[in-house]
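cron nightly-structures :: item 1 of 1
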Amino acid sequence: LLEDLVAGSTLADCEAVFSWLESHAAQVAPFFTKGKMLMLRAANDLLRRLSKANDTVLCGRVVMLLATLYPLSERSALNVKGNFNPANVTEFEEIDGDGEAAGEGGVDAAFHARFWKLQALFAAPMLPLTKPTRFVELTMGVNAALEAFDAVHVATPAVIVGGEQQGEGGGTRIGAKYLTSRRLLSLQVRDGAFRQHFLCQCLILFRFLLSPGDKKGALKLKQVQAIEALQARVLGALKETTSKSKEESKRFVAAVQESLSREVGWAAWKAAGCKSLERAPEAPKESAKPPMKRRRLRGAAPLFEVSSLWTAPQRDHEAFVASDARKPVPLVAEHLQPLAEQLDPDAGIDEEYMLKNDKMWCWKALRLIGRTNWSAFQKATKHGVDHVCHRFVEGAPKVEAKVE
């Protein structure tokens, strides 16, 4: 039904159908296992009808819906062999520029041909690896473009707002090809978005050339050094081109580098055979050894004696509280009286043998002082109990705090 509906509907109706599928993706997922090929055919038929230049948003929504419904390790949606798209050809007219004066930044007919010839290398990254002349063409073309970018001031820097690239007028740019006219190139090199597209293409190609892998041909040491030097220059130019704000340009360049680093892991996963990324929950491990029996400690009370504690009458506790065996809480003066006697110089007791050095006695004294006088408690915790003893015991000598 879905395949027939998409095939017999207009593009506007197809957009409404996929909007409904996006909002009901959770309900559609259980039926997707049996009809996933029908869904794939319907989506591919719609993608062939859509324009990649004018219907970019709808194309992306269709692809994102398929990515949501299909598992991450589905091989049918992967470019396992890493094939390139040879149909992506950039056509331009080569003009004989003999006698033509070079424009600003050296933009002339020769630069026009050298610049647009780089698109053939971006579409077929294996050429610089297999043909040394194409590698020289790549380095010379990128160097010429960077020199032109340095010589020409950016008139409209590319601005990233909300994850979308915007031009001078604030309109969102789409992923269409640029015009390759000779007369437009001198204006295009002033556009920050145009520079940004070209510099990102260079970084993607450099990442492919420098990444490890089983490729036909490998770069030599001098070639690797040349690519790394170009990569550093491209990153510097990208920071100056992206936005007027340094923070925004740094965030954009960091996002590009993060995306390229993830591509390395993605390529390694495909080279390893696209192993499934979904893992079943692990079953709980059964212990090989039988549980050890707890041995009752020698001298422990039997179970029936412990149970009898819960059935003991409450009056036994009340009787213990009211009995003389339970010591009542002493008064502060009573507790501090022995220390006051020791502080008397006539007693002749050395300081190291006084109660103020007994931690347990001092802890009890602090609890009693804290209940009665908060300022005295603060002074006792800072200087010692002996410094507040005269406040509670009449006739106790006053101990002055030492000034450091």
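cron nightly-structures :: done
The longest strand covers residues 159-161.
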